[in-house]
């Protein structure tokens, strides 16, 4: 795929309807062929995934050390000890990725969840019916992330899991936010507004962003990069499980409770 085309595997309303099995998901190698930045989740909805500069990391809800997810064929001839903790063979039941090339770059003295939308001017509101990929690299005063627990049985509903979400706040930490702004009409396919994930510079912390605030350190400001995406490709699973029931656009309130960030 070319730069700044959004590739999405499955749809959010299907995820809400419990379709998160190994068989329903896309392989890591297949997904990374369509983008080098993005986000998603893993089989059974156990935690959060972020893709940054071609590398994929999974942050389990337990708070255990993150896992770097690789394709089965990756690094076969690489003897680097850092690969010992890599995980292969995982699939993702939902993911959004793009080959990220910013259309606009800003250097800001500060940024927060409440100012993110206004900081994207003039792309918001001028391109509010396009999809946007958003990346912010900064020193964070704090970042609050949440993770969805794994399904306790197959097909447990995401709205039920959302009631058991855990939240963690990391303070005074260097890292990157990456995610997407999706227009209102896409609700059900994706999540309207912002859907952002975080990854620390040392890779030790990450998750789905609930709130954040940056501050200046060593005279370094926030680097905010944004890409406009006018091409949106959705691939749906071909499995019998996915096509067993009619999938509607879903309940917007439940989706925002389970996955919502800022609008």
TrEMBL record:
Enzyme nomenclature, EC number: 4.1.1.5
Organism superkingdom: Eukaryota
Pathway noted in the entry: Polyol metabolism; (R,R)-butane-2,3-diol biosynthesis; (R,R)-butane-2,3-diol from pyruvate: step 2/3
Pfam family, one: AAL_decarboxy
Top-level EC class as recorded in UniProt: lyase
SUPFAM superfamilies according to UniProt: AF0104/ALDC/Ptd012-like
Catalytic activity: (2S)-2-acetolactate + H(+) = (R)-acetoin + CO2
Gene3D superfamilies per UniProt: Hypothetical protein, similar to alpha- acetolactate decarboxylase, domain 2
Protein name: Alpha-acetolactate decarboxylase
Source species of the chain: Aspergillus carbonarius (strain ITEM 5010)
């Amino acid at each position: 795929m070319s730069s700044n085309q959004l590739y999405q595997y499955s749809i959010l309303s299907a995820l809400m309807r419990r379709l998160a099995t190994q068989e329903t998901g896309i392989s890591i190698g297949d997904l990374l062929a369509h983008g080098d930045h993005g986000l998603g989740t893993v089989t059974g909805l156990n935690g959060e995934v972020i893709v940054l500069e071609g590398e994929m990391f999974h942050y389990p809800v337990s708070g255990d050390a993150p896992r770097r997810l690789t394709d089965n064929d990756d690094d076969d001839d690489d003897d680097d000890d850092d690969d010992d903790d890599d995980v292969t063979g995982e699939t993702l039941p939902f993911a959004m990725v793009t080959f990220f090339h910013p259309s606009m770059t800003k250097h800001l003295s500060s940024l927060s969840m409440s100012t993110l939308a206004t900081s994207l001017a003039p792309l918001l509101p001028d391109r509010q019916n396009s999809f946007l990929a958003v990346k912010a690299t900064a020193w964070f005063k704090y970042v609050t992330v949440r993770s969805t627990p794994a399904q306790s049985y197959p097909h447990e509903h995401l709205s039920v899991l959302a009631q058991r979400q855990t939240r963690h706040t990391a303070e005074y930490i260097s890292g990157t936010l990456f995610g997407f702004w999706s227009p209102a009409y896409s609700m059900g396919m994706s999540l309207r507004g912002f859907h952002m994930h975080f990854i620390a510079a040392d890779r030790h912390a990450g998750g789905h962003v609930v709130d954040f605030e940056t501050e200046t350190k060593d005279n370094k400001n926030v680097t905010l990069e944004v890409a406009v995406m006018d091409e949106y490709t959705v691939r749906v699973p071909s499995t019998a499980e996915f096509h067993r029931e009619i999938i509607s656009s879903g309940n917007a309130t439940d989706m925002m409770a389970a996955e919502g960030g800022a609008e």
